[in-house]
């Protein structure tokens, strides 16, 4: 059998081949550009940037400095003739006077200024507040003349919002099921779900849960808890929520399930290296418990102190040995002396048998605050109280604390639809929890006594999916 190729088909293939080879970089017009008219590299240099800071006294200060952005990579899309930076520059960078560095197939590079082609030089200061069009002049052997190649559109992208500033949103209408109001509460997060364990004014204990997605919150659903539940024991562990009731360990699944045979438990502290840390008040000891409820090790807590009630705790690998985990616990200082002006902080290393208490009432210890909370967010440790005046941060595992003077600040007045957080708390309870959810966003949730909520988000941790 012979295969015959029609002359018209051959002609069509040749025409298509010519069209593709002559229209590189332009899929819509049959224009023949010189083949040596490409920009091969693009970068920017030192730019002016405005900085907004607070002094140690809380006073605002503004200054401008020069910062090199020569290392910022620019993508050159040769097909679509676009040049841009995928990672946006900080919001307060001035891109109205940019000195660029450009390499091209031919040295004659032009840009469009006032609708006219203007020769570009390495000393030119260009305004990139809008995209700038560049062209490379080169010799076109087909036409036997100098000609422009296909134009490039160059964009210098800048964040519209400061990536390190907090964005706030309030959810007024999401109230706890059945109109419940909590006099005391604790919030935990796991698997895109918020759980709030609470105690009402009459002493009854209940839990509410709601799904959260991309910084939005759904309706609350009530969960009945066993009598004797310590609401402060609620802890996210093993993709579930574990808690203590009447000295025993339970978790929430489709139904409340008892775990293991441990007795004498008073509270759950946190999760450390894949195991629960549980407090036994009668013995003043801390035990480690696996997901099946087996007690593994024990350590002695600090004499004269206890972890029966409200506290905040975090655990992380030690910086010098990843096999060791450090746990930090913060509670309110219940001292009665005027000198008792700082929070109480405890520390524990996983290979020790004793807990330690940091020396209180030092100038650099975290100030004592009503219903104090400690969280980790964006890789840092923060603490704050129910007056929501300041975030305090520690860089040395909770030993020393500084008032945050950057962009981690609470709303101080009505702005962008958000009031000072004490407006929402009133005289009621609150709890705070962090939702670390990768590309789906990382949020700080504040839950108020009636289930209404406020959340905070660093701009650069905005959902990317």
Blueprint (SSEs and pairs):
Blueprint: H1 7-22, E1 39-44, E2 46-54, E3 60-68, E4 75-77, E5 82-84, E6 100-104, E7 108-113, E8 116-119, E9 132-140, E10 145-148, E11 152-155, E12 166-171, E13 184-190, E14 193-199, E15 205-213, E16 216-217, E17 221-224, E18 229-237, E19 240-245, E20 248-252, E21 256-259, E22 267-272, E23 275-280, E24 285-289, E25 295-300, E26 312-317, E27 325-331, E28 344-349, E29 356-357, E30 373-377, E31 380-384, E32 392-394, E33 402-403, H2 422-425, E34 430-436, E35 442-448, E36 453-458
Parallel strand pairs: 5-11
Antiparallel strand pairs: 1-6, 2-3, 4-5, 7-8, 7-9, 9-10, 9-11, 12-36, 13-14, 14-15, 15-16, 15-17, 18-19, 19-20, 20-21, 22-23, 23-24, 24-25, 26-27, 27-28, 28-29, 30-31, 31-32, 32-33, 34-35, 35-36
Give a short synopsis of this structure.
With 465 residues, this protein is mainly β. 4% of the residues lie in helices and 43% in strands.
CATH class of the largest domain: Mainly Beta
Task: Give the CATH topology of the largest domain.
Answer: Neuraminidase
The CATH architecture classification of the largest domain is 6 Propeller
Largest sheet: 7 strands, mixed
Mean pLDDT: 89
The gyration radius over C-alpha positions equals 31 Å
How widely separated are the two ends?
55 Å
State the helical fraction: under 10%
What do we call the CATH homologous superfamily of the largest domain?
TolB, C-terminal domain
Number of helices: 2
Number of strands: 36
Strand content: 35-45%
The parts where pLDDT drops under 50 for at least 5 residues are: 1-29
- The domain tally reads 2
Shape: elongated
Structural class: mainly beta
């Amino acid at each position: 059998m012979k295969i015959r190729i029609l002359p018209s088909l051959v002609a069509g293939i040749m025409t298509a081949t010519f069209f593709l080879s002559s229209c590189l970089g332009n899929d819509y017009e049959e224009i023949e550009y010189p083949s040596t008219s490409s920009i091969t590299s693009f970068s920017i240099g030192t730019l002016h940037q405005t900085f907004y800071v607070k002094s140690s006294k809380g006073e605002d200060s503004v200054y401008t400095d020069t910062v090199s952005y020569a290392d910022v990579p620019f993508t050159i899309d040769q097909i679509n003739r676009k040049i841009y930076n995928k990672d946006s520059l900080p919001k307060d960078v001035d891109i109205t006077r940019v000195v660029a560095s450009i390499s091209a197939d031919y040295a004659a590079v032009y840009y469009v200024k006032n609708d006219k082609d203007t020769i570009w030089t390495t000393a030119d200061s260009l305004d990139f507040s809008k995209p700038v069009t560049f062209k490379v002049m080169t010799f076109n052997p087909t036409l036997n003349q100098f000609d422009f190649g296909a134009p490039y559109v160059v964009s210098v992208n800048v964040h519209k919002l400061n990536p390190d500033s907090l964005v706030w949103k309030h959810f007024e209408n999401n109230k706890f099921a059945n109109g419940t109001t909590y006099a005391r509460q604790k919030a935990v997060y796991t698997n895109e779900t918020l759980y709030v364990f609470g105690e009402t004014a009459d002493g009854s204990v209940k839990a509410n849960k709601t799904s959260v997605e991309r910084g939005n919150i759904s309706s609350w659903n009530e969960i009945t808890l066993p009598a004797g539940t310590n609401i402060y024991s609620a802890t996210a562990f093993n993709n579930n929520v574990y808690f203590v009731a009447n000295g025993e360990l339970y978790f929430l699944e489709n139904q409340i399930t008892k775990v293991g045979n441990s007795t004498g438990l008073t509270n759950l502290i946190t999760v450390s290296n894949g195991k629960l840390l549980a407090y036994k008040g009668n013995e003043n000891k801390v035990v480690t418990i696996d997901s099946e409820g087996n007690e593994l090790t024990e350590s002695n807590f600090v004499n004269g102190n206890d972890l029966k009630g409200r506290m905040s705790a975090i655990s992380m690998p030690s910086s010098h040995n990843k096999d060791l985990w450090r746990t930090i616990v913060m509670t309110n200082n219940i001292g009665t002396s005027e000198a008792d002006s700082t929070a109480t902080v405890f520390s524990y290393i996983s290979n020790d048998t004793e807990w330690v208490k940091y020396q209180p009432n030092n100038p650099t210890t975290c100030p004592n605050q009503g219903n104090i909370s400690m969280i980790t967010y964006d890789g840092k440790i923060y603490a704050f109280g129910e007056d929501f005046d300041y975030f305090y941060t520690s860089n040395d595992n909770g030993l020393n604390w500084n008032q945050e003077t950057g962009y981690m600040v609470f709303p101080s007045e009505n702005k962008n639809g958000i009031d000072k957080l004490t407006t929402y708390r009133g005289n009621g309870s609150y709890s705070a929890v962090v939702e670390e959810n990768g590309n789906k966003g990382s949020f700080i949730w504040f839950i108020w006594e009636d289930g209404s909520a406020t959340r905070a988000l660093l701009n650069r941790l905005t959902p990317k999916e």
